[in-house]
TrEMBL record:
<keyword id="KW-1133">Transmembrane helix</keyword>
<feature type="transmembrane region" description="Helical">
    <location>
        <begin position="354"/>
        <end position="372"/>
    </location>
</feature>
<feature type="transmembrane region" description="Helical">
    <location>
        <begin position="424"/>
        <end position="444"/>
    </location>
</feature>
<keyword id="KW-0406">Ion transport</keyword>
<dbReference type="InterPro" id="IPR020846">
    <property type="entry name" value="MFS_dom"/>
</dbReference>
<feature type="domain" description="Kazal-like">
    <location>
        <begin position="469"/>
        <end position="524"/>
    </location>
</feature>
<keyword id="KW-0472">Membrane</keyword>
<dbReference type="Pfam" id="PF07648">
    <property type="entry name" value="Kazal_2"/>
</dbReference>
<keyword id="KW-0812">Transmembrane</keyword>
<feature type="transmembrane region" description="Helical">
    <location>
        <begin position="270"/>
        <end position="294"/>
    </location>
</feature>
<keyword id="KW-0445">Lipid transport</keyword>
<protein>
    <recommendedName>
        <fullName>Solute carrier organic anion transporter family member</fullName>
    </recommendedName>
</protein>
<comment type="similarity">
    <text>Belongs to the organo anion transporter (TC 2.A.60) family.</text>
</comment>
<feature type="transmembrane region" description="Helical">
    <location>
        <begin position="230"/>
        <end position="250"/>
    </location>
</feature>
<dbReference type="GO" id="GO:0043252">
    <property type="term" value="P:sodium-independent organic anion transport"/>
</dbReference>
<keyword id="KW-1003">Cell membrane</keyword>
<feature type="transmembrane region" description="Helical">
    <location>
        <begin position="40"/>
        <end position="59"/>
    </location>
</feature>
Length: 710
């Protein structure tokens, strides 16, 4: 079928490449073949990149879900877990500049494939310690194999246990101590996460730019949006995988599960944390395979070749003739590129809107990153929930709320044609109401569990003295007990005791989880009307705690949605107030500042603050402090929520300053024109052009783990 010359030209300008030195007249079969090759190649790349985004988001969120499991397995404090969590950002920063600079010159798909291989290796490395540390040892009363034999937890005298048995036990402890003293296996977890950060680095900048280079211009934003949508699905599956693995015992397949005396509700419980990393590693490995078979270049659409390279020309790139553009990177001199660096940096930091928004973002991300990193721990300790249920709730409720919030923010911007002032107001309002809702969580906490010698005395009164001294009382004075043990039992009076020995129990019967302790002198003195027996495991939280947990979930979901609504308007505000030739540079500085000043330090100092609320520390076999066994619920609530709110409030003040500067710079006429799409308060061109450019830049600067931050 014949078509007009105009239609023929329009058809090829959107779908084919016409080389400069070739005739514009092509056969219809040749043009069709080239069009299919271009479209097919970019769609294959799009599918592969989407799978990679899913893989890296899954492994990143799974790490968040295993924070408490890693802490218990390696017997380390929260502050050290924060260092492990921040190592991902460190790895990313180590090579981000090299990848961004040299990546465009090299084979981008294969670099992404190599990144997936490194990311997979790092994920596998995190799981390696499980296979070299031996079986997980938790503190427990040595019940007998024959349930008819009664053992006394309260050793009135060492003679109750044969000396040879004590010596053998001590020798076994010393042997284990020598083995553990030479190995700090958590270092492998840190190095593995560092490798994950290195491997993830090329995926975003090289993948997004590859799509932007070879996709039809009007389809570019749609393709990038598809990639980011898949990336948001990753954390949902990551937390659900964390929920599944947390139900399984850490040494499943290696020990008899009937011999395990602790349950998932016990603070010593460690799930099969390593299993999820093996699964995530395999997924990352598979995701990288297609990139090794993709070409270095795809045919460019005619519309892309004939048009200018970009509406944003960098000052750092030297303009040359068309014949020299293929080799302009080689001809550009480093001295000429560096010449404008400092003036550009000065120009950027001389922009009050940019610097104020940067400060607001750094402080807000400190708040959000710290809050999300320790959210599973907070739910477990505050509301007495298991790790499995905590991860399930976060993955199935919180993450979708964040995704819906981000989508809603963009929809509101588009539907109401909001300009830069409107974007600033929407971003500020989102933060203000989000943190206001967070304030209500102070009233939705649970009281401390009644733990004899820690939160209440052995006579039922609230604790006022040092907890270590209060662990011993008249009722257990005749027992040979250690204050370092943590093997809680629940008395029939509803009080938890640190160990059966400290409860003064004289006899026991049964094995494993079915062990029952009798004649517990401390249980009897606490409430003489009750029986003096006890069972393995801590007592449950108060009756009001499940209701408070439900309220917490509702407010948490609404808060996550509210805070997420302001994400897109915030990026629009950032991009519209920067000179076009400085946008890429500004976004690079922004991302670097967030990672260095928020992504790395926030988990560390949040962990240090949380450690201060610990009431009972575990003890390592060789001595020294291990992981925390019991937190002060009230103190934990005030520290965790208080630190989050203080940082959030400071960021709001900076956001108010941003709005004030914008109002001062703009006139009422500017605001009207901005709403009509002609001119914004920051002196941008047309709103249409800005939306086309900023949509792509917003997507390309999307933070890989932003969907896990709330």
């Amino acid at each position: 079928m014949e078509i007009s010359s105009k239609e023929h030209t329009h058809f090829f300008s959107n779908n084919t490449v016409v080389p400069v030195d070739r005739s514009s007249f092509k056969s219809e079969s040749s043009a069709s073949k080239e069009r299919q090759s271009c479209c097919g190649g970019i769609k294959i790349f799009l599918g592969a990149l989407s799978f990679v985004y899913f893989a890296k988001a899954l492994s990143g969120s799974y790490l968040k879900s295993t924070i408490t499991q890693i802490e218990r397995r390696f017997d380390i404090p929260s502050s050290l877990v924060g260092v492990i969590d921040g190592s991902f950002e460190i790895g990313n920063l180590l090579i981000i500049i090299l990848v961004s600079y040299f990546g465009a010159k090299l084979h981008r798909p294969r670099i992404i494939g190599a990144g997936c291989l490194i990311m997979s290796a790092g994920t596998f490395l995190i799981a390696v310690p499980q296979f070299f540390m031996g079986r997980y040892r938790y503190e427990s009363f040595p019940s007998t194999v024959n349930s008819t034999v009664s053992l006394s937890p309260c050793l009135q005298d060492k003679s109750q246990t044969p000396l040879s048995a004590l010596e053998k036990s001590q020798a076994k402890i010393n042997a284990g101590c020598e083995k553990e003293a030479g190995s700090s296996m958590w270092i492998y977890v840190l190095l593995g996460n560092l490798l994950r950060g290195i491997g993830e680095t090329p995926i975003q900048p090289l993948g997004i730019t590859y799509i932007d280079d070879y996709a039809v211009e009007e389809n570019s934003a749609l393709y990038i949006g598809c990639v980011q949508t898949v990336a948001i699905i990753g954390p949902i599956f990551g937390f659900l995988l964390g929920s599944l693995c947390a139900k399984l015992y850490v040494d499943i397949g290696f020990v008899d599960l009937d011999s395990v005396t602790i349950s998932p509700k016990d603070v010593q419980w460690v799930g099969a944390w390593w299993l999820g990393y093996l699964i995530a590693g395999v997924i990352s490995l598979l995701a990288g395979i297609p990139f090794w078979f993709l070409p270095k270049h795809l045919p460019k659409p005619e519309s892309r070749k004939d048009s200018s390279t970009s509406s944003e020309h960098s000052k750092f790139i030297i303009e040359e003739s068309k014949d020299q553009r293929a080799s302009y990177w080689q001809q550009a001199k480093l001295a000429e590129m560096a010449k404008d660096f400092l003036p550009s940096l000065k120009n950027l930091f001389g922009n009050p809107v940019y610097i104020l928004y940067l400060c607001a973002s750094i402080i807000q991300f400190n708040s959000l990153i710290g809050m999300v990193t320790y959210k599973p721990k907070y739910i477990e300790q505050q509301y007495g929930q298991t790790s499995s249920k905590t991860n399930f709730v976060i993955g199935l409720i919180n993450i979708p709320a964040v995704a819906f919030g981000i989508f809603s923010g963009g929809l509101i911007m588009k539907k109401f044609g909001i300009g830069v002032l409107g974007a600033a107001k929407l971003s500020l309002g989102s933060s203000f109401f989000g943190y206001l809702l967070l304030l209500s969580l102070f009233a939705m906490g649970c009281e401390n569990s009644d733990v004899a010698g820690l939160t209440v005395s052995y006579h039922g009164t609230k604790m006022m003295t040092d907890y270590e001294e209060a662990l011993f009382s008249e009722c257990n004075s005749g027992c040979w007990c250690s204050k370092n043990d943590w093997d809680p039992i629940c008395g029939e009076n509803g009080v938890t005791y640190v160990s059966a020995c400290l409860a003064g129990c004289q006899a026991s019967n049964g094995t494993g989880k079915n062990t029952v302790f009798f004649n517990c002198s401390c249980v009897g003195t606490f409430d003489s009307s009750q029986s003096s027996s006890a069972v393995v495991g801590p007592c449950q939280k108060g009756n009001e705690c499940p209701k408070m947990f439900l309220y917490f979930l509702v407010i948490s979901v609404i808060t996550s949605y509210t805070l997420s609504v302001g994400g897109t308007p915030g990026y629009i505000l950032l991009l519209r107030c920067i000179k076009p030739h400085l946008k890429s540079f500004a976004l690079g500085i922004y991302t670097l500042a967030i990672r260095v000043l928020a992504g790395i330090p926030a988990p560390v100092y949040f962990g240090v603050a949380i450690d201060t609320t610990c009431l009972k520390w575990g003890s390592k076999r060789c001595g020294g402090r291990g992981a925390c066994r019991l937190y002060d619920s009230s103190a934990l609530r005030y520290v965790y929520l208080g630190l989050t709110l203080v940082l959030g409030t400071v960021s709001i003040f900076f956001s108010v300053a941003v709005l004030w500067v914008l109002r001062k710079r703009s006139s009422p006429q500017d605001e009207t024109l901005s709403a009509n799409g002609e001119r914004g308060a920051c002196g941008t061109k047309s709103r249409k052009d800005n939306f086309v450019n900023t949509d792509q830049l917003i997507q390309s600067t999307y933070w890989p783990e932003k969907e896990t931050r709330l």
